[in-house]
Amino acid sequence: MATEPPTEMRVLELPADARAWVRRQQLGGRRVAFVPTMGALHEGHLALVRRGAELADDVAVSIFVNPTQFGPNEDFSRYPRTWEDDLRLLRRDGVGMVFAPAADQMYGSRFSTLVAPPRVAEAFEGSIRPTHFQGVCTVVLKLFQIVPADVAVFGQKDYQQARVICDMVADLNLDIDVNVYPTVRDPDGLALSSRNRYLPAGDRERALALWRALSLVARLREAGSCDPSEWQAAMVEELHRSGVDTIDYAAVVDPQTLLPLPGPLSPLPSDPANAPPVAVALIAARIAGTRLLDNLLVR
To answer: Residue 286 forms beta bridges with which residues?
Structure first.
């Protein structure tokens, strides 16, 4: 028989307290979902929280800006931190526990163990940010130990990161399910991201170039094109035409391995809505100094 749901949101800083909270819920027969975040929450994060509430009885969220996944010239120091707003939103959405550790709780003075990421981390973000996924895998594995939930929810917006975590969980036989939730977008198509707030007001239209480029891939597929190289060229052309400052990558690859596709794909099936993905289009681009990522699954 499940216990009653928690009556108020707990905000915990110590790993032992967070672990005990999860174990208490589970011993009471309640299933726990976990949403790891770095704060600066927006509607995309809250969609993950709501998905967690669909999959479990209680939802735990972590807020921790993880220093080990930032490179030396990246935005760790200026990454947006909106603590009071974050807590207000999570309390409104019925979160049971927030784990918000200090850096020295996660990485003590003698900390030296790092997790090597799986092979799917090698290209794209892994080649541009060489230590990024090592930091991601290390902190996520630590969080899974501290918050031993039944299911963890991640967003598709960071597609490669989600694949890295899924492969790490499988490779290391971790006892947690991973649920990947579709990208949440503004009405004009811009993928929600904490870094969007870096964009100057006049550069939002340029940022929409990522979604326009991905939408071109969908239209080409629907029009009968089976050639990923054609889709990739169309994405690059649209990004250049829209005045994107820098294209880090714009590629169409295998949705599981992120390796290049061997050649043309099969024609679109008669019922594409239920067809499995055959490719993923990935984009990383810089606009007014802000680095944006987006992706689209191709069925």
So the answer is: 246, 291
Q: What is the pLDDT of residues 179-227, one digit of tens each?
A: 999 999 999 999 999 999 888 878 988 999 999 999 999 999 999 999 9
**SS3 at position 141:** helix
In the set 42, 45, 132, 240, the catalytic residue is 45
Alpha helices in the chain (DSSP H): 15-27, 43-55, 83-92, 103-106, 125-128, 132-146, 159-171, 204-207, 209-222, 228-241
Per-domain boundaries in the chain? 10-181, 194-298
In the structure encoding, which two tokens stand for residue 203, read together?
């550069």
CA distance 207 to 191: 9
Tell me how far CA of residue 258 lies from CA of 155, 203, 275, in angstroms.
Answer: 17, 30, 19
51-88 pLDDT tens trace: 999 999 999 999 999 999 999 888 898 899 999 999 99
pLDDT in the model for residue 1? 40
Q: Helices 132-146 and 15-27: crossing angle, nearest 10°?
A: 50
Residue type, 8: E
> For all residues of the chain together, what is the average pLDDT?
95
For the full predicted model, state whether its pTM sits above 0.90.
yes
Give the amino acid at 29. Answer: G
Enter the CATH code of domain 10-181. Answer: 3.40.50.620
CB under 8 Å to 281, separation ≥6 — which residues? 213, 214, 217, 231, 232, 235, 250, 251, 252, 295, 296, 298
Q: Is 132 a catalytic residue?
A: no
CATH superfamily of 194-298: Pantoate-beta-alanine ligase, C-terminal domain (3.30.1300.10)
